UniProtKB/TrEMBL annotation, chains A, B:
Pfam families: ACT, Homoserine_dh, NAD_binding_3. It is an enzyme of class 1 (oxidoreductase). This is Homoserine dehydrogenase. One of its GO terms (biological process) is threonine biosynthetic process. L-homoserine binds at E192. Keywords: Amino-acid biosynthesis, Methionine biosynthesis, NADP, Oxidoreductase, Threonine biosynthesis. InterPro entries: ACT-like_dom_sf, ACT_dom, Asp/hSer_DH_NAD-bd, HDH, HDH_cat, NAD(P)-bd_dom_sf. Its EC number is 1.1.1.3. Residues 350-428 form the ACT domain.
Length: 428, 428
């Protein structure tokens, strides 16, 4: 197998340019490692005239990604267009139908259509790989699918949106409000065109849905991921969590419980001294737990030209070397339909609220918790002014359903100034 | 390809038992993930009568590992005997000659004979895999060989001997001397029969030599790894490093320089807040750096039944799935002969010494450094008694060769109470 592997690259943005640079710069290295050359034969993008700082003249150009996907001189269709529908989906479908292998960095596409695309690819004898779709340069798809294949996976966790991690760690280090750092992130170009994809947890939720599918042998079910964004995290939360030895992270957790598959992407408190707690800036971290291996922690850049292109090339090299794995580690047609479970494994909770400064207010709150069988581990009332009292409560282990009932009951007591913020304290 | 993959397991110690447990417990999971069953057909060990807490009656027994390696009903020979020579080597050679694939956890064997064994295996059309040989459950071989295959690797680093990391972190947390914690580790059964393999850096050096071969496409050359153990690290070093925001780690570093391949396994100072600095107890960490991906950090258990067996199974699953990679990521016959370079990339150094308490002593030491062009960043003289003065110096960036010359010159000044301890401060 020494014939060249021929790539068609659709989408020449940041990541596409990165892939082209690697193929051009490391032609010899790649040929030595793969036992055959890797070539780009054709590319497509919306704007042919734009200077992208990389040589494109030697490649055939297609205006239409679908036409690129069908070219006879393309073995592997590399989809770097993005978006969960439209041209990316049409082109990937066309590539599969034409018997091509597909490599994509598109988490939204796979979170919504991964099951159908994987079944189509496997039915056509093609492979569909997506290392770059989850956590950028971190090789979590390969590690989970291959390195931990001898394990029953017990839990997967991850900080998988670098922008959110940047915002949360920058709030703490600079003592800035959420709004101020959000603006900063926007000015730095860190945010998606629709920032809800980042700060609403949607982008990271897509990634968690893909990891959960491999981990638990279930069909991708993005709708089953409980999503909660970081928009309500205040500098007070950051500071008070830090006082108690915690950091706030937008953390995804998926685990199989007796009740079904629990998957949630939400702001959580983690110990400041843990690997997750130590993660600063726009970095990503994926934590994989298996019954034999224990805990494996993977840390790296979750975005950017080089890291994401490195992950794309990992899939390309895999195909060049003749490794042909099912998309989610076992045949897609045999994946189980997940039974989504309420996110309700017991955990301690952090509860921040502002009470009206009147006698008996705290007692009423405590009674609401007590009525749901939730006991209080620690409670602090902070300095206050203007008739309102900030209160912080850390509960003992509680069910989220009980906590939500207690919070609903609190709303009826007329002692709350605003809706309480409740954050799970994750055992990492 | 739905016929069972048949394993013959030689060596039924901790790891062998772990592998057998996984194959028995996860038969269905493995069959789903591999597309075919994984079976054990035969085993061998020295003592047939010992109760190992696992069912063995269903497997054929061989007293001789070489006989096991040649059995017709074995597809993959799993070598878990250990040792760089003797029965492990003979059996692996026999398995290769008989056309079997081989999975081994034996770093000593591969560090000494990996090149010859890889060439033999590849010549015979077999594969030889060794994920479990480096850093236990951490999937560093697969990540380096496959996930980072699009990168020129610029540096690999690792804390890869859990016993040494246990000793160094326990000295700090408990304030105990090296000798006291060494005894503790011995009592806990953490030490090899010959403890020099651990504390002398040999075991970790074997692992670094294997990583370097994959990273830089060079033949395994254990002799080129500069080894320095942790035996001379005192509780004073631990405490003084901590005072300055550092931790002492037995750290392996391999990097390609203009002078050749630099590989060293030695105690180093790393920032206490870095992932390497944060690594506690018997854990392992591997840090891989590539020109596109940047830095990838992998953390997990470096030893033990479950983690090591998980890594063995990763290789077994790879073979079951039909993935057939060259041992070191490209054909062994084409690996370059490394040009070993002196470990001489510039770095700041930590220098601890005890001076005779007499006028001008410090000036003489400073003069020795100055004569080699080494400037001093920080210097502290500690409280002293009985006519001797503990002194700590942190240099600006210096070459190790210059530092060694300065230390040799110091010996001629007659102001040293004992030989100085010099530790590189690694930029991690």
């Amino acid at each position: 197998m020494t014939s060249p592997l021929r790539l068609g690259i659709a989408g020449i943005g940041t990541v596409g340019v990165g892939v082209i640079r690697i193929v051009q710069r490391h032609a010899d290295l790649l040929a030595a490692r793969c036992g055959r050359p890797i070539q780009i034969t054709a590319v497509s993008a919306r704007d042919r005239s734009r200077d992208r700082g990389v040589r494109l003249g030697e490649y055939a150009w297609e205006d239409d990604a679908v036409a690129l996907a069908r070219r006879d001189d393309v073995d592997v269709f590399v989809e770097l267009i993005g978006g969960d529908d439209g041209p990316a989906k049409a082109a990937v479908e066309a590539a599969i139908a034409a018997g091509k292998d597909v490599v994509t960095a598109n988490k939204a596409l796979l979170a919504h259509h991964g099951q159908a695309l994987a079944e189509a690819a496997e039915g056509a004898g093609g492979v569909l790989r997506f290392e770059a779709a989850v956590a950028g340069g971190i090789p979590c798809i390969k590690v989970l699918t291959e390195s931990l294949a001898g394990n029953e996976i017990t839990r997967v966790m991850g900080v998988m949106n670098g922008t959110c991690n940047y915002i949360l760690t920058r709030m703490e280090s600079a003592g800035l409000t959420y709004d101020a750092v959000f603006q900063e992130a926007s000015d730095l170009g860190y945010l998606e065109a629709d920032p809800t994809l980042d700060v609403g947890g949607i982008d990271a939720g897509h990634k968690l849905a893909l990891l959960a599918s491999i981990a638990f042998g279930t069909k991708v079910d993005f709708g089953a991921v409980k999503l909660e964004g970081i928009e309500r995290i205040s500098i007070d939360d950051i500071n008070r969590a830090a006082d108690m030895g915690f950091r706030v992270k937008l953390l995804g957790v998926a685990q199989m419980t007796g009740r079904g598959l629990e998957a949630r992407m939400q702001p959580c408190l983690v110990p400041a001294a843990s690997p997750l707690g130590q993660l600063e800036g726009p970095m990503n971290m994926v934590v994989l737990e298996g019954d034999s291996v224990g805990q494996i922690v993977l840390r790296g850049a979750g975005a950017g030209e080089g890291p994401t292109a490195s992950a794309v090339m990992s899939d390309v090299v895999e195909i060049a070397r003749g490794q042909r794995l099912p998309t989610f580690g076992q045949p897609a047609s045999g994946l189980a339909t997940p039974r989504p479970a309420e996110a309700n494994t017991p955990a301690p909770y952090y509860l921040r609220m502002v009470l009206k400064d009147r006698p008996g207010a705290l007692a009423k709150i405590a009674a609401c918790l007590g009525a749901e069988g939730i006991s209080i581990d620690r409670m602090r009332q902070y300095d206050h002014a203007e008739g309102s009292a900030p209160v912080l409560i850390v509960t003992h282990k509680a069910m989220r359903s009980g906590l939500d009932a207690a919070i609903a009951a609190m709303a009826g007591t007329d002692v709350l100034e605003s809706e309480p913020v409740a954050l799970r304290i994750e055992d990492v």
